[in-house]
Amino acid sequence: MTAAETGSKWVVLQTCGDNAEAAMLRGLLDVSGIPCMVQGEQHRSMLGTLGGYVDLRVLVPLAELDRAREVLTQGQAEAEAALDAEALSAGGADVVVLHQRSERPEDWRAQRRRRFGWITLGIFFGPGVIGILLAMARGCGG
User: Fold this and answer.
1) What CA–CA distance (Å, rounded) separates 60 from 57?
2) Domains in the chain: how many in total?
3) 13 closest CA partner among 5, 114, 21
4) What is the C-alpha to C-alpha distance for residues 53 and 115, in angstroms, rounded to an integer?
5) Burial letters for 54-86: b for 16+ Cβ neighbours within 10 Å, e otherwise?
6) pLDDT truncated to tens, each residue of the chain (142 aa)?
7) Measured between alpha carbons, how far is 109 from 114 in angstroms, rounded to an integer?
8) Are 113 and 55 in contact (CB under 8 A)?
9) How many CB atoms lie within 10 A of CB 37?
10) Which pTM was predicted?
11) Cβ-defined contacts of 13-16 (< 8 Å, 24+)
């Protein structure tokens, strides 16, 4: 589904760390009747091993952004409640482990992936590009 089909601008709802997280979020939005698309899925699969460094961004129409945020918040609250209930039932009365939301911003994974991807590209392709530039410089100066 494209912006032209919905007549709305698409905006980023959330950046996901992997395909499973993006698929789960897409399913949650689909069940709620909110159109969405995941940007970066095809790029990830085409790049193979380096694909893990491509951000997966879940996009929703601007008109649906507030409702999508509500659905996402409700889904996270339900998931946390289920994890808490499971921890309580598994641990008995002596051990209580409650799920807590991370204090780190959600983009830290994306920043780390992006940084590592640039370093990897620099290591693999940097020497070749420098060699080509040096050969071109020699050819132009001669």
Assistant:
1) 10
2) 1
3) 21
4) 9
5) bbbbbbbbeebbeebeebbeebeeeeeeeeeee
6) 544 455 679 999 988 877 888 888 899 999 999 999 998 887 777 777 666 667 788 999 999 999 999 998 888 777 777 767 766 666 554 444 444 444 445 566 667 777 777 777 777 777 777 778 778 778 775 5
7) 8
8) yes
9) 16
10) 0.56
11) 13/58, 13/59, 13/60, 13/65, 13/68, 13/69, 13/72, 14/57, 14/58, 14/72, 14/106, 15/55, 15/56, 15/57, 15/58, 15/106, 15/107, 15/109, 15/110, 16/56, 16/57, 16/58
Q: Residue 3 carries which side chain, given as an amino acid letter?
A: A
Give the C-alpha separation, 2 to 4, whole Å.
5
| Cβ partners under 8 Å of residue 34, min gap 6 | 60, 64, 67, 68, 71
Rounded Cα distance between 78 and 74, Å, is 6
Domain residues for the domain of 55 are: 3-141
Phi, psi of 112 (to 5 degrees): -65, -45
116-120 contacts at long range (C-beta below 8 A, 24 or more positions apart): 116/53, 117/50, 117/53, 117/54, 120/50, 120/53
